[in-house]
Specification:
By secondary structure, the chain is an alpha+beta fold. Helix content is 45%, strand content 14%. Keywords: Hydrolase, Membrane, Transmembrane, Transmembrane helix. One of its GO terms (molecular function) is hydrolase activity.
């Protein structure tokens, strides 16, 4: 999730458990600790462009790391803020740990993938119930936290948490409806998917991207679920087969290993770019949910040295032009 949402949920939980006089302090420490796990974005290397993909939402987001992350935040924030506000170290630790603990669970509700069970498993959990940015989730929660701090009424933070749970529940209902529509669409095409997922499109839970896999292809579509259901048919792409698509690639090279790292990060949803033959794309994300138009990819270099890494690319072109199209799909036009 975006930092504001992470911080706001991180503020709401300790604030909801605090007494009236500590409502503001609990929210402040929880807000900062709630954002802290994303400091893992600083783990990167100028020579290895995929390192940050491996370590974002990694050990700092693991459930087992929560008490340690909370303690680290408390040691820093108690000196900077907590002691000045009259908090004991124990209170600072409690508020920071509660705030820190909300982060990974919230991230797992998105589509990106979070390593909740590290170091026991490298599975990336993605429950696909909310977009990484969703104002309808964030703004009511933020209002509740701010008013609870101003009026010293922790009960308002509890109302905010209730809204967060309710909205996630609505997202779950919408996700399951979108999955069902995806299976119906696949059946109409005579397909039996090996797997199928539905992911919320940007900033809403009305319009969903469905991706399903057959023996040799991935199919991408968009559906408007539950309220005035509608299908926006998309397109398909062949699954990446390295021996066929990039026969020049040495299986023992660093580039080949990087492809497998990217496959793990993308949960296997990778294909060769239909336009750029030496580019491998993650088909899970696109600006318009019924398109195969990746937000990021890796680019391989034929003839590269055995130890050379791939290049990491991001693609954000044409965003403004697609906003009206996206809005028409969300509103069911």
């Amino acid at each position: 999730m975006d930092p504001l949402t992470q911080g706001t949920l991180g503020a709401a939980l300790p604030q909801a458990t605090a007494d009236r006089r500590l409502a503001g302090s609990a929210a402040l420490l929880g807000f900062l600790a709630g954002m802290a796990p994303d400091l893992d974005v600083l783990i990167r290397s100028p020579s290895d462009p995929l390192l940050f993909l491996e370590y974002h939402r990694h050990f700092t987001h693991a459930l087992i790391f929560i008490p340690f992350g909370g303690a680290i935040c408390a040691l820093v924030l108690h000196v900077l803020l907590g002691r000045r506000r009259g908090l004991s170290l124990g209170q600072s630790w409690l508020f920071c740990t509660l705030g820190y603990g909300t982060h990974a669970v919230l991230d797992a509700c998105t589509t990106y993938g979070t390593m909740l069970l590290w170091p026991f498993s490298d599975e990336r959990f993605a429950w696909n119930t909310i977009s990484v940015i969703d104002p309808l989730f964030t703004l009511p929660l933020l209002l509740a936290v701010v008013l609870a701090a101003i009026w010293r009424k922790p009960v308002l933070a509890r109302y905010g948490l209730a809204w967060a749970v309710l909205y996630m529940g609505l997202g779950l209902v919408q996700r399951d409806a979108a999955v069902a529509m995806g299976y119906e669409l696949a059946a109409e095409r005579g397909h039996q998917p090996l797997r199928l997922e539905a992911k919320p499109s940007f900033a809403n839970i009305l319009l969903w991207k469905t991706v399903y896999e057959t023996e040799d292809r991935y199919y991408v579509d968009a559906v408007r679920a539950t309220v005035r259901p509608r299908v926006y048919a998309g397109s398909s792409v062949e699954k990446l087969v390295l021996d066929r698509d990039m026969p020049w690639l040495d299986p023992q090279s660093q580039q080949a290993r990087d492809v497998e790292r990217f496959r793990w990060f993308s949960n296997g949803y990778i294909a060769r770019d239909p336009v750029y033959s030496n580019r491998v794309i993650d088909i899970r994300y696109s600006l318009l949910p019924n398109q195969i138009d990746p937000l990021w990819s890796i680019e391989l270099k034929p003839g590269a040295a055995p130890r050379d890494h791939v290049l990491y690319r991001t693609h954000r072109e044409g965003g403004r032009e697609r906003v009206p199209m996206m809005w028409d799909m969300i509103t069911g036009r």
